[in-house]
Specification:
Blueprint: H1 12-19, H2 25-38, H3 43-52
Helix pairs in contact: 1-2, 2-3
Length: 61
Amino acid sequence: MAVEITRQDVPAGKLRLAAVPAQEANAARRTLAIVLVLEGAGSQDIGRNLRDGPSDPARPG
């Protein structure tokens, strides 16, 4: 399923920082997946992030 990101008024770095204090792990993973898309990551990296979560909370992947 392809998704188009239409809002790009918040840079990836700010989204990454916003995901850190998220109370719900699934919401944080989804936010970090959006960051990965904005940073040009491949679909396998994004899927791994959604499935397993980031290996380092400061830097997903």
